[in-house]
C-alpha cells in the first residue's frame, strides 16, 4: 500500500516558504493602506510643489519658483520662528506632566477622581480649549484681565498683541499637553521597581537625588514617548491657532501648518503648489526629529 | 403685483409648452444659505417655483455657509448641480475662467434683464458675457446709536471733519466712537473701501483692486493719511483684533460704543440684542472730498448656471423666475435685504428704505467689497495690512511695500 500521493509542486513550494511569506501576507493590508494614504501622498506633495495650481484649472510647471518665493516671504519666516518657539516652550509640558504625575502618585481617598480631573483637559476637544482660553484672555470681560485689574494693572489684550499672542496660544496648548504627559508618567510610575526604591532608601537617597538617580532612569521609556508626542504635537499645532487668533493679529501667530492650510485651502488661498511647498519644508523639519527618534529606538531595540 | 405676474404668464406658458412632452423634469440647486433668514428665503423661493412649474422636481442641497467656500470647488467639477449660488464681481472670476460657470446671455436677452437688472449688470459681466442672476444686495454705511447721538447733541456727520468732531465729543463723554472687530480681517476692509471711495473715487478704487495702481502710489497714501486722522482722533475701539464682528456688537448694544461701519446684516443681531429703531439708525459714510461723486458699497449675491448642468432648460426657467420683480420682492422681504430687479418692492423697514434711497441715488458707482473686487490673494494680504495699520500706523511704509510686492506677483 504505497499510495502516498505525491504532493503538488506548488504546495511544496508554499510549505517550504510559508514561514517567510506569512508575515508579509499579514502585513499586506496595512502596508497597502500606508502606501496609499501616507507614502504616495508625500511624493505627490513634493511633485505638486513644483507647479502653480489653483485646484481647478490647469497645472503649470514652474520649477522651484514656489520655493524661491517661499524663501523671500516674510510670512514664511514668521511661521518658522513661531514653530521654533512652539517647539521649545511646548517641551515644558514634559517636566510639568512629570511633577503632576509625582504629585498624584499616592494613595489617598478619591485619588482616582483627582487623576481624572487632571486628565480632563486632554479629553476635551482642542477647539473647546481654544475657546475657553480666548474667553479667559478677552480684554474686556476675560478672567485674566479682571484679575489684573484687581491688582490695579492695565488689561493686556493677549491675543490681539503680536508680542504675546503666540505665547498665549502656547499656554493654552500646554494645558492639555501637560495632562497627556502626566498620564504617560503615571503609567510609567506604576512600573517603577519598588525594590530599587527600597534599596536606594537604605542607602540614604531621598528627595531630588532619589528622583534624579533612581526614579527618572526607570522612567526613560515614558520620557521618550512624551518627547516624541510633544514635539510632533508642537509641529502640527493648528486647531488652537485657528480658533484663538486665526493666524492674527496680522499673521503674527501663524505656524507652518497653519500657513500651509491658509495658502492651500482657506477662503483666500487655493494656491495648491505653494501650500505643497510649505508642506514639504514642514515635512523636512519633522523628518529631522522623526529620523533621530527612529534611529534611537532602533539602537535601543538592538541593544537589548 | 397681480398685473405684473399676468404680463409674465404668456411668456411662461410658452416656455412650459416646450417641455410638455417630458415626463419627470428635475433641477438640482446647491446653496450656502444656511443662516436662518436666507434658509427660509430659499425654502419659499423653491416652493413657489415648484408651485408654478408643478412638473419640475427641485432637489435642493443646503451647505454650511463656511464649508461651501471649499465644497463649491469640488461639486462643480465632480458632481455638478444645475445651479449654485455665489457672489458677483471678482469672486466669480476663478469659476468663470475654469469654465465651471456657463454664460446665460440668452436668459438676459429674452427677459429684458439688461433693463430690469441694470444696477448689477456691470458686476455680472466678464468678457462681455453675463454669468448669473443677481437676486439680492445690501448697503454698507455707518450704523449708530441714535439715542447716544441725541443725548450728546451730535448730528449725523455729513463730512469727514464732522465725523472726526463726533469722535472727539464721544471720547470726551467716555464713549468709544466706532466699534469694530478685526479678528477675521474683512471688517477693516469695509473702512478702507469707504475711505478710498471717498478720497479717490470709484474708478480709482476699481483700478486699485484690479491691480493697475501700485500700493505705494501717493493717492493710496492719501487714503491712509485720512485713516491716520481717524486713529489720531481715537475713533476706533481698542483691542479690536481680539474680536469677530459679532463680538464687537456687544459694546454697541451696551451703549459703550456709538457707531459701526458695517453692512445691513448687522441690523438683525442688533435688534435681537434688544435695540429698537428709536435707538438705532443709519447714515451714509461722510464726504471727504466734495469733488468726488459718492460711490457706495453694496455686495451682490447671485445664482449661477453650472457648466456641467444636466438640466439646463429647467435651470434657465429657474433663473428667469428668480429675476422677476415679484419673486425678488418676496425673497428679499424674508432676507431683510434689497431686491435688484426694477419694479420690485422694498420691505417696510427703515434701514432698507434708507439704503434703497441711498443706492438709487448713487452716481459714483457701486463696489462689491474689497475681498470680492480684488483677487483672493491680494484681498488677504491687503486686509492683513489694514488690520496692522490700525494698530501700528507707524509701519505704513513697510505695509505698503509688502502689499506692492504681493500686487506684482498676483496680477502677473
UniProtKB/TrEMBL annotation, chain A:
- Pfam families xref list: BPD_transp_1
Membrane topology recorded in Swiss-Prot or TrEMBL: Multi-pass membrane protein
Q: List cellular component terms (GO).
A: plasma membrane
What UniProt keywords are attached to this protein's entry? Cell membrane, Membrane, Sugar transport, Transmembrane, Transmembrane helix, Transport
- PROSITE patterns from the xrefs? ABC_TM1
ABC transmembrane type-1 domain boundaries: 79-295
Which Gene Ontology terms describe the biological processes this protein takes part in? Answer: transmembrane transport
Q: Which domain of life is it from?
A: Bacteria
Transmembrane ranges, per UniProt, are 21-43, 84-105, 117-137, 164-189, 210-235, 274-295
Cellular location(s): Cell membrane
Q: Which family does it belong to?
A: Belongs to the binding-protein-dependent transport system permease family.
This one is known as: Multiple sugar transport system permease protein
From TrEMBL, chain B:
Recorded GO cellular component terms are:
periplasmic space
Q: Which UniProt keywords apply?
A: Signal, Sugar transport, Transport
Pfam families attached to this UniProt entry:
SBP_bac_1
Compartments reported by the entry: Periplasm
InterPro entries noted in UniProt: Bact_solute-bd_prot1, SBP
Main localization of the protein described in the UniProt heading = periplasm
Secretion signal, residue range per the UniProt entry = 1-24
For this protein, the record's Gene3D superfamilies field holds: Periplasmic binding protein-like II (3.40.190.10)
Q: Which SUPFAM superfamilies match?
A: Periplasmic binding protein-like II
Q: Which family does it belong to?
A: Belongs to the bacterial solute-binding protein 1 family.
Q: What protein name does the entry list?
A: Multiple sugar transport system substrate-binding protein
In its UniProt entry, the species of origin is given as Meinhardsimonia xiamenensis
Amino acid at each position: 500500500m504505497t499510495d502516498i500521493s505525491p504532493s503538488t509542486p506548488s504546495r511544496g513550494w508554499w510549505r517550504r516558504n510559508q514561514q517567510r511569506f506569512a508575515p508579509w501576507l499579514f502585513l499586506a493590508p496595512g502596508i497597502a493602506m500606508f502606501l496609499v494614504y501616507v507614502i504616495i501622498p508625500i511624493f505627490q506633495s513634493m511633485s505638486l510643489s513644483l507647479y502653480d495650481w489653483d485646484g481647478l484649472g490647469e497645472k503649470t510647471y514652474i520649477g522651484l519658483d514656489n520655493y524661491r518665493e517661499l524663501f523671500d516671504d516674510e510670512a514664511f519666516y514668521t511661521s518658522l520662528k513661531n514653530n521654533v518657539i512652539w517647539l521649545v516652550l511646548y517641551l515644558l509640558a514634559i517636566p510639568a506632566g512629570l511633577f503632576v504625575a509625582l504629585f498624584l502618585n499616592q494613595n489617598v481617598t478619591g485619588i482616582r477622581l483627582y487623576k481624572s480631573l487632571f486628565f480632563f483637559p486632554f479629553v476635551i476637544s482642542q477647539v473647546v480649549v481654544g475657546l475657553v482660553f480666548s474667553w479667559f484672555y478677552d480684554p474686556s470681560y476675560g478672567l485674566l484681565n479682571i484679575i489684573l485689574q484687581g491688582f490695579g494693572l492695565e488689561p493686556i489684550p493677549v491675543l490681539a498683541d503680536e508680542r504675546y499672542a503666540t505665547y498665549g496660544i502656547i499656554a493654552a496648548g500646554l494645558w492639555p499637553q501637560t495632562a497627556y504627559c502626566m498620564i504617560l508618567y503615571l503609567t510609567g510610575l506604576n512600573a517603577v521597581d519598588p525594590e530599587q526604591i527600597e534599596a536606594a532608601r537604605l542607602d540614604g537617597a531621598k528627595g531630588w537625588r532619589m528622583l534624579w538617580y533612581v526614579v527618572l532612569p526607570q522612567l526613560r521609556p515614558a520620557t521618550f514617548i512624551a518627547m516624541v508626542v510633544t514635539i510632533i504635537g508642537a509641529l502640527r499645532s493648528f486647531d488652537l491657532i485657528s480658533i484663538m487668533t486665526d493666524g492674527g493679529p496680522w499673521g503674527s501667530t501663524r505656524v507652518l501648518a497653519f500657513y500651509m492650510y491658509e495658502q492651500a485651502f482657506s477662503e483666500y488661498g487655493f494656491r495648491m503648489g505653494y501650500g505643497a511647498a510649505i508642506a514639504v519644508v514642514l515635512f523636512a523639519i519633522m523628518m529631522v526629529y522623526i529620523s533621530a527618534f527612529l534611529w534611537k529606538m532602533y539602537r535601543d531595540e538592538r541593544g537589548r | 403685483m397681480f398685473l405684473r405676474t399676468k404680463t409674465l404668464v404668456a411668456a411662461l406658458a410658452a416656455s412650459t409648452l416646450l417641455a410638455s412632452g417630458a415626463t419627470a423634469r428635475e433641477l438640482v440647486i446647491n446653496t450656502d444659505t444656511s443662516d436662518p433668514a436666507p434658509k427660509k428665503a430659499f425654502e419659499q423661493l423653491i416652493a413657489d417655483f415648484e408651485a408654478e412649474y408643478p412638473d419640475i422636481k427641485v432637489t435642493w442641497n443646503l451647505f454650511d455657509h463656511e464649508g461651501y467656500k471649499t465644497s463649491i470647488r469640488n461639486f462643480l467639477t465632480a458632481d455638478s448641480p444645475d445651479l449654485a449660488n455665489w457672489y458677483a464681481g471678482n469672486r466669480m472670476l476663478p469659476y468663470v475662467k475654469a469654465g465651471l460657470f456657463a454664460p446665460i446671455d440668452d436668459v438676459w436677452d429674452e427677459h429684458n434683464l439688461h433693463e430690469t437688472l441694470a444696477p448689477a449688470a456691470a458686476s455680472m459681466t466678464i468678457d462681455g458675457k453675463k454669468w448669473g442672476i443677481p437676486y439680492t444686495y445690501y448697503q454698507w454705511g455707518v450704523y449708530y446709536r441714535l439715542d447716544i447721538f441725541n443725548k450728546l447733541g451730535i448730528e449725523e456727520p455729513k463730512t469727514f471733519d464732522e465725523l472726526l468732531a463726533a469722535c472727539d465729543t464721544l471720547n470726551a463723554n467716555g464713549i468709544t466712537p466706532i466699534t469694530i472687530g478685526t479678528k477675521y480681517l474683512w471688517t477693516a476692509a469695509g473702512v478702507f473701501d469707504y475711505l478710498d471711495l471717498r478720497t479717490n473715487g470709484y474708478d480709482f478704487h476699481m483700478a486699485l483692486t484690479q491691480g493697475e495702481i501700485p500700493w505705494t502710489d501717493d493717492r493710496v497714501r492719501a487714503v491712509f493719511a485720512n485713516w491716520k486722522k481717524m486713529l489720531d482722533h481715537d475713533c476706533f475701539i481698542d483691542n479690536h483684533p481680539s474680536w469677530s464682528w459679532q463680538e464687537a456688537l456687544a459694546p454697541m448694544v451696551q451703549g459703550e460704543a456709538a457707531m459701526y461701519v458695517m453692512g445691513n446684516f448687522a441690523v438683525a443681531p442688533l435688534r435681537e440684542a434688544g435695540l429698537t429703531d428709536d435707538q438705532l439708525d443709519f447714515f451714509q459714510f461722510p464726504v471727504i472730498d466734495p469733488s468726488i461723486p459718492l460711490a457706495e458699497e453694496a455686495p451682490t449675491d447671485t445664482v449661477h448656471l453650472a457648466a456641467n448642468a444636466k438640466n439646463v432648460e429647467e435651470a434657465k426657467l429657474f433663473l428667469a423666475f428668480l429675476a422677476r420683480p415679484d419673486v425678488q420682492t418676496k425673497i428679499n422681504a424674508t432676507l431683510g435685504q434689497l431686491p435688484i430687479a426694477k419694479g420690485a418692492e422694498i420691505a417696510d423697514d427703515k434701514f432698507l428704505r434708507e439704503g434703497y434711497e441711498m443706492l438709487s441715488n448713487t452716481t459714483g458707482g457701486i463696489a462689491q467689497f474689497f475681498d470680492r473686487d480684488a483677487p483672493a490673494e491680494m484681498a488677504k494680504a491687503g486686509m492683513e495690512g489694514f488690520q496692522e495699520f490700525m494698530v501700528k500706523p507707524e509701519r505704513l511704509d513697510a505695509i505698503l511695500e509688502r502689499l506692492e510686492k504681493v500686487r506684482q506677483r498676483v496680477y502677473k
